[in-house]
Amino acid sequence: MPGPNSPYRSRELLRSFPARASHKELGMEIKMNEKLIWRLAGIVRDSHHIVFFGGAGVSTESGIPDFRSVDGLYHQHYKYPPEQILSHTFYMKKPEEFFRFYRDKLINPDVLPNKAHKVLAKWEAEGRLKAVVTQNIDGLHQAAGSKKVLELHGSVMRNHCEKCGTPYGVEIVSETAGVPICPKCGGRVKPDVVLYEEGLDMRTVEESVSEIRAADTLIIGGTSLVVYPAAGLVDYFRGKHLVLINKSATHVDSDAELVIADSIGEVLSAADALL
Ligand SMILES: NC(=O)c1ccc[n+]([C@@H]2O[C@H](COP(=O)([O-])OP(=O)(O)OC[C@H]3O[C@@H](n4cnc5c(N)ncnc54)[C@H](O)[C@@H]3O)[C@@H](O)[C@H]2O)c1
Ligand SMILES: [Zn+2]
After folding, report:
1. pLDDT tens readout for residues 2-24
2. Top CATH class, 1-64+113-153+201-275
3. Is residue 153 among the annotated active site residues?
4. Which atom of ligand 1 is nearest to the CA of 226?
5. How far apart are CA 263 and CA 195, in angstroms?
6. Domain 65-107+157-193, what architecture?
7. pLDDT digit string (tens) for 189-230?
């Protein structure tokens, strides 16, 4: 958390900007956020151990829908709600339906990393950022070149045979139909994705906690912060600068030194250009 004397703590500066209106609503283009982006650039320059904590909103600009935005998966119509389909019970009981939804909505073979993924990878290469902790399962941070990516909910890029354990890439799902079957033993292939009702990998959680604890700056972006236990990890932050970049409000906004309610790709690349 920023100390009382931190130059970025000033609420006065923030107060002159509506904290949660998008630039489109105000008809002021990106200028509205210009001062906030300058402040973000200042924070990044001042930091040696940035950790980024993100979610589905980081990938919407790559064309992958998130869950809770108006055009997100939760607002589209399915026979079952997405959180039910993506549960362990559903996977066990109705694997065909599970894989129909999963292949259709969560496997996106043609998508590319966007500006947000690229800037984060660049900041890691420059030594400013030490880890990306993500709830995403799309592998786009790695595709952008990020090395230290802690995937709290696993990845669609990894799969394994439930029977013989053989690991497979994404092709075993993306290039097949129906329930994917292990060519070696005929067992069912399961994505290494944490389904609802399943526990998170403890090593990944512990590493995420230790990265967040060690961070001097935590940038949270593209997440509604409502999926637990993942969202609870941000509470371990003890550093100087807490930044929120999210189009809609979160429960952590009031604790943050800087809240930017705008496109994460645009905000991060604009800040990067000022470094
Ligand atoms: N790409 C993926 O891997 C993917 C896609 C959908 C859901 N999921 C998973 O489902 C769960 C959903 O929780 P969640 O909190 O990550 O997502 P969420 O859908 O609950 O919230 C996404 C948040 O991002 C914001 N947002 C959307 N686009 C944005 C943009 N361009 N710039 C800034 N903010 C933007 C929205 O306002 C929203 O608050 C997570 O486990 C998530 O990983 C993953
Ligand atoms: Zn097998």
Report:
1. 333 333 332 222 212 323 444 45
2. alpha beta
3. yes
4. 15
5. 28
6. 2-Layer Sandwich (3.30)
7. 999 999 999 999 999 999 999 999 999 999 999 999 998 899
Query: What's the CA-to-centroid distance between 64 and ligand 1, angstroms?
Result: 9
- Kindly identify the ligand whose nearest atom is closest to the C-alpha of 116: 1
Is this model's pTM higher than 0.85 or not?
A: yes
- 141/59 Cα distance (integer angstroms): 9
Q: Pick left, alpha or beta for residue 222 (phi over 0 → left; psi -120 to 50 → alpha; otherwise beta).
A: left
Which one is predicted more confidently, 67 or 257? 257
Query: Has residue 28 got a pLDDT over 80?
Result: no
Give residue limits of the domains in the chain: 1-64+113-153+201-275, 65-107+157-193
Rounded to whole angstroms, the Cα distance separating 155 from 81 reads: 21
Ligand 1 test: best mutation among 67, 108, 201, 264, most atoms within 8 Å of CB? 67
Per the residue annotation, which of 49, 75, 88, 153 is the catalytic one? 153
